[in-house]
TrEMBL record:
It comes from the Eukaryota. It comes from Salvia divinorum. Residues 7-284 form the Cdc23 domain. The keyword Transcription does not apply. It holds the Pfam family TPR_11. This is Anaphase-promoting complex component apc8. TPR repeats lie at residues 345-378, 379-412, 413-446. Keywords: Cell cycle, Cell division, Mitosis, Repeat, TPR repeat, Ubl conjugation pathway. Residues 38-58 are annotated as: Disordered. Gene3D superfamilies: Tetratricopeptide repeat domain. The keyword Repeat applies. GO terms for biological process: cell division.
């Protein structure tokens, strides 16, 4: 990892370079990481420090920079991109920064008048101007494609409409790449074009060239990540050993469900970016996937204290509050994002979760649909809307929502799980089993998925009890929070006449219920079975203990326990005084 000062200098220059080119998301990401680096307290007064942890407000630092720092370049309009093996001297067209053509085009671009921006730059030959023209044309094509989809199919419909600028852009960018006259930003646009046309292998190579030449464009790294759907594809990348690579690997590991490896990377990055809210949010995401909800809640509470108007990732926080049934906290969060920006997909999903927890499923669906109108590829909205349709018993609509989710991301185990649930409701266990297997393959450490698959095996049509037992065993090994697996294992073994195995699992289940101080029918069932089992095997003292505990209940089990105790005493007398 480079020094803090090196990272700070590089990010400060990157924010300016990316902003000048209209790469707003990448500039925002770089600025957030810049503010995540701890300041040297010997050089800065408290009033110039950044986000203060544990504070309810954000204090921003304002520092007078040296001329070299202010420009972000060492000298003579040349920015030296530091990489481990080489120093790339990249010319930036500072004469163009004062060009009336570029300033006019950029103002049009900022107003989303992409074709006007491209037209202004049609005769400009500098790399910077050519990039903005390419990017403006690409976005103009995307804007028109979205308009056509709405006109033809409605905001949530499917459509075959395509970006009509791709062909001409591919031709021009391909020529520039062959001639060696394309810059890293042009390569980024070329990668976008290739990815949308389905040329994934070439797109991957082009994105690698882009990030190796200019490693601070997080948008390029993000696009590259979407093309690495397997660990083999990730390991095959020939990436320079820049510190930005660690951010990429941490994010890629997370998408590949390597959550512990991702956590290790982010914790390493925190050594430099100790105050980065982005890293904190990603750590929360990894913990969420590991179902460590208590830790996730603590992280998000701290994030909101430091950045009270933050909306990114807050829908994940709402999922945690929903799972824990924290009604008041979820209500407060929904009210908060509604006041901050109610027309954000994340806000709509949070409000949708709020209404779902209240049992108002129709209103919940309305907000999930609103999220999808704002961003039709917003994955969690499709999945959550599918869950709502399942609650409403509208299985056909649920199946459609889940299928849209897996079209967007085939690695979304929640959508596959939802499809399994929907087909199980329709009485089609073979289809349900297929989808449950998909979800378990993607998320093998989630006990809920193993339990769902086991219950599918138990259905009357399948009745594959041995397979169900295997699934329940997996669930028990995956920290079964709902405490279903042990009880079901005991019942299945009892049903199959395996009394020793049944007694083993009933004992384990009883120990767990005692540790968690839980009462209920499962405890009665376990005590009853163990009392009868011990009596049968002449373990009279143990059987008597279980029967005595049953006497504390008021139902029919009390009479059964009394009868068992009489039988135990008679059997004990016969044993000691045979006729």
């Amino acid at each position: 990892m480079a020094s803090k000062e090196t990272c700070r200098t590089e990010l400060r220059a990157a924010v300016r370079h990316l902003s000048e080119r209209g790469l707003s998301s990448a500039a925002k990401w770089a600025a957030e990481q810049l503010m995540g680096i701890e300041q040297d307290p010997s050089k800065h007064t408290p009033s110039h420090t950044r986000f203060q942890r544990g504070s309810s407000s954000i204090r921003r630092r304002f520092r007078t920079a040296t001329p070299a720092e202010a420009s972000g370049t060492p000298s003579a309009g040349v920015s030296y991109v530091m990489t481990p093996s080489l120093v790339v001297a990249e010319e930036y067209d500072y004469d163009l920064m004062d060009s009336d053509f570029y300033l006019l085009a950029k103002s049009y671009f900022d107003c989303r008048e992409y074709r006007r921006a491209a037209h202004v730059l049609r005769d400009q030959t500098s790399k910077k101007a050519m990039f903005l023209r390419f990017y403006a044309l690409y976005l103009a094509g995307e804007k028109r494609r979205e308009e056509e989809m709405i006109e033809l199919e409605g905001p949530l419909g499917k459509s075959d409409s395509a970006n009509r600028e791709l062909l001409s852009l591919e031709r021009e960018l391909s020529t520039l790449r062959k001639n060696g006259t394309i810059d890293p930003f042009g390569l980024y646009v070329y990668g976008l074009v290739l990815k949308e046309k389905g040329s994934e292998n070439l797109a991957r190579s082009v994105f690698v060239e882009s990030v190796n030449s200019y490693p601070w464009n997080w948008s390029a790294w993000s696009e590259l990540q979407t093309l690495c759907t397997t660990i083999e594809a990730l390991n095959s990348l020939n990436l320079n050993n820049h510190w930005m690579k660690d951010f990429f690997l941490a994010s890629a590991y997370q998408e590949l469900r390597m959550h512990n490896e991702s956590l290790a990377k982010y914790e390493y990055l925190q050594g430099t970016f100790i105050f980065s809210n982005c890293i904190q949010a990603q750590i929360a995401k990894a913990q969420y996937n590991l179902r460590e909800f208590e830790q996730v809640e603590v992280i998000f509470e701290e994030l909101l204290r430091n950045d009270p108007y933050r909306i990114e990732d807050m829908d994940m926080y709402s999922n945690v509050l929903y799972a824990k049934e924290c009604f008041s906290a979820l209500s407060y969060l929904a009210h908060r994002v509604f006041l901050t920006d109610k027309y954000r997909p994340e806000s709509c999903c949070i409000i949708g979760n709020y209404y779902s927890l209240k049992g108002q499923h129709e209103k919940s669906v309305m907000y999930f649909r609103r999220a999808l109108k704002l961003n039709k590829n917003y994955l969690s909205a499709w999945t959550l809307m599918g869950h709502e349709y399942v609650e409403m018993k509208n299985t056909s609509a649920a199946v459609d929502a889940y299928r849209r989710a897996v079209d967007i991301n085939p690695c979304d185990y929640r959508a596959w799980y939802g499809l399994g649930q929907a087909y199980e409701m329709m009485g089609m266990p073979y289809y349900a089993l297929h989808y449950f297997k998909k979800s378990v393959f993607l998320q093998p450490n989630d006990s809920r998925l193993w339990i769902a698959m086991a219950q599918c095996y138990e259905t009357e049509q399948l009745h594959m009890l041995e397979e169900a037992i295997k699934c329940y065993k997996q669930a028990a090994n995956c920290n079964d929070r709902e405490a279903i697996a042990l009880h079901q294992l005991a019942k299945l073994h009892s049903e199959l006449g395996r009394t020793e195995e049944a007694a083993f699992y009933y004992k384990k289940d009883l120990e767990r219920m005692e540790a968690e101080e839980r009462e209920g029918p499962n405890m009665v069932e376990a005590l009853m079975f163990l009392a009868q089992h011990c009596k049968t095997h002449k373990k009279f003292n143990e059987a008597e203990v279980y029967c005595t505990r049953l006497l504390d209940y008021t139902g029919p089990e009390k009479e059964t326990a009394k009868s068992l105790l009489r039988g135990i005493r008679y059997a004990r007398d016969v044993e000691h005084f045979p006729p």
